[in-house]
C-alpha cells in the first residue's frame, strides 16, 4: 500500500442464489436454480426465496461497455457490507444507478454515502462516471474526501477532473449554504497488485489482468465476513482468475460471444482477442475457478442474443451462471 495523496482544490453457501430485479419492491428475491443446460434464465426461476441473512449484497450498477446501450449503464459494481458501499469502477450513470438501488432499499448507496471507489483500469467506459462520484455526492452532502484506489494514472485523471470543474467548485463553495470544502476531494491511492485495502468489514486484493496494451489493469478479490467475490474488470483470458476465485462465492467476469465474434471484421477480432475473454474461454476459467455463481457482465454480444451467450458459457461450464442486467442483485 502507498501513502495516499489528497488531491483537492489548492488551485487547484448457497444452494439457492437469489437476486433481485432493480425495480422490485421489498427484499423478495427470485431464486434461480440454474442447472447446467437449462434452456433459458426465465425457465430456471424455480422458486422464490428471501435473501435476508447475508451481510453482503452485490448490486450490478452498470453492466455495459463503450456501446451506449440505454438499458446498460457503464460498468460499475457495488459490494455493500453492513450498509457500507464499496464501488468497483465508475461507468457513465453510476451515481444515478446507485440512487435507484438506494430507492429500492439497498442501504449505503444514497449519494452522500458513496465514499470508496476502486478502479480496475482507466478506460473511459470504466471511468466516465468518476467526475460524477467526485462531485454529485459532495453536492448532496458528502463531507469527507472520496477514498479512491486505482492504477498509476489515477492521480493525473483526478487532477484533470478537478481542473475541468474548477469554476464549479469555486462557485458552489462560495455560494451561501454551499457544500463542504472537503467532500469533492479525493484521497488517491495508486495501487499495485496485492492487498490494497482492509477494514473491519472487507479486505480487497488487486491482481493483474492482461488487457489490450494497458500496463496496469486489475481485477479484484473482495473478502467480506460472509462472502468472497472476484471481479475481473476487463481482460483477455487469465488463468490467475481461477486461482483468485478458488471456490469463491461469486465470480463476476467480462465476456464476449463466440458466435458474435465470428461475425466481427478481422481487425476488430484482433483487438478484442487480446482485450477480452470469449464465452468458451470463460467457461474453462470458471470450471477451474469453481465459483458458487458466475455472473456475466460487460457483455459484448456482437449481435448474438443473451440466450446464445449463456448457452456458449454453459457448453463448457456446469455451474450456475447468470447474465447480469443493470440493478440486479446477487
Ligand atoms: Zn470496458
Ligand atoms: Zn477496458
What features would you describe in this structure?
By secondary structure, the chain is an alpha/beta fold. The protein has a single domain (5-323), classed as 4-Layer Sandwich (Metallo-beta-lactamase, Chain A), CATH 3.60.15.10. Helix content is 25%, strand content 26%. The protein is built from 10 helices and 17 strands. Strands 1-10-9-8-7-6-5 form a 7-stranded mixed beta sheet. α9 packs across α10. The longest helix has 11 residues, at 154-164. It starts with a strand and ends in a 7-residue tail after the last strand.
CATH topology: Metallo-beta-lactamase, Chain A
Number of helices: 10
Share of β-strand residues: 25-35%
User: Would you count the extended β strands for me?
Assistant: 17
Report the uncertain regions: 9-52
Overall morphology: globular
Q: Class in CATH?
A: Alpha Beta
Q: Under the CATH scheme, which architecture would be assigned?
A: 4-Layer Sandwich
Which homologous superfamily in CATH is the superfamily?
Ribonuclease Z/Hydroxyacylglutathione hydrolase-like
Residues in helix, %: 25-40%
Could you report the average pLDDT, rounded to the nearest whole number?
88
How widely separated are the two ends?
30 Å
Instruction: Please write the string of helix (H) and strand (E) elements.
Output: EEEEEEEHEHHEHHEEEEEHEHHHEHE
Keywords:
globular, binds zinc ion, 7-stranded mixed β-sheet, 25% helix, Metallo-beta-lactamase, Chain A, 10 helices, alpha/beta, 330 residues, 26% strand
Amino acid at each position: 500500500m502507498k501513502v495516499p495523496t489528497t488531491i483537492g482544490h489548492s488551485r487547484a453457501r448457497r444452494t439457492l442464489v437469489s437476486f433481485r430485479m432493480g425495480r422490485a419492491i421489498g427484499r423478495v428475491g427470485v431464486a434461480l436454480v440454474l442447472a447446467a443446460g437449462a434452456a433459458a434464465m426465465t425457465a430456471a426461476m424455480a422458486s422464490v426465496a428471501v435473501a435476508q441473512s447475508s451481510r453482503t449484497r452485490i448490486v450490478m450498477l452498470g453492466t455495459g461497455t463503450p456501446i451506449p446501450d440505454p438499458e446498460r449503464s457503464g460498468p460499475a459494481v457495488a459490494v455493500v457490507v453492513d450498509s457500507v458501499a464499496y464501488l468497483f469502477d465508475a461507468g457513465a450513470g453510476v451515481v444515478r444507478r446507485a440512487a435507484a438501488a438506494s430507492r429500492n432499499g439497498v442501504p449505503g448507496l444514497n449519494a452522500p454515502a458513496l465514499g470508496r471507489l476502486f478502479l480496475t483500469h482507466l478506460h473511459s467506459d470504466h471511468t466516465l462516471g468518476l467526475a460524477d462520484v467526485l462531485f454529485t455526492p459532495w453536492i448532496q452532502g458528502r463531507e469527507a474526501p472520496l477514498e479512491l484506489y486505482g492504477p498509476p494514472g489515477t492521480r493525473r485523471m483526478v487532477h484533470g477532473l478537478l481542473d475541468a470543474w474548477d469554476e464549479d467548485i469555486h462557485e458552489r463553495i462560495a455560494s451561501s449554504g454551499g457544500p463542504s470544502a472537503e467532500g469533492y476531494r479525493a484521497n488517491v491511492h495508486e495501487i499495485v497488485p496485492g492487498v490494497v485495502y482492509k477494514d473491519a468489514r472487507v479486505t480487497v486484493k488487486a491482481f493483474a489482468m492482461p488487457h489490450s496494451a494497458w500496463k496496469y489493469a486489475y481485477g479484484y478479490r473482495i473478502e467480506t465476513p460472509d462472502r468472497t467475490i472476484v471481479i475481473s474488470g476487463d481482460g483477455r483470458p487469465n488463468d490467475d482468475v481461477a486461482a483468485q476465485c478458488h471456490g469463491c462465492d461469486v465470480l463476476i467476469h467480462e465476456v464476449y460471444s463466440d458466435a458474435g465474434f465470428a461475425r466481427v471484421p478481422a481487425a476488430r477480432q484482433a483487438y478484442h482477442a487480446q482485450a477480452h475473454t470469449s464465452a468458451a474461454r470463460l467457461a474453462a476459467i470458471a470450471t477451474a475457478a469453481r465459483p458458487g455463481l458466475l455472473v456475466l457482465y460487460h457483455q459484448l454480444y456482437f449481435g448474438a442474443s443473451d440466450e446464445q451467450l449463456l448457452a456458449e458459457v454453459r457448453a463448457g461450464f456446469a455451474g450456475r451462471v447468470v447474465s447480469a442486467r443493470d440493478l440486479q442483485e446477487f
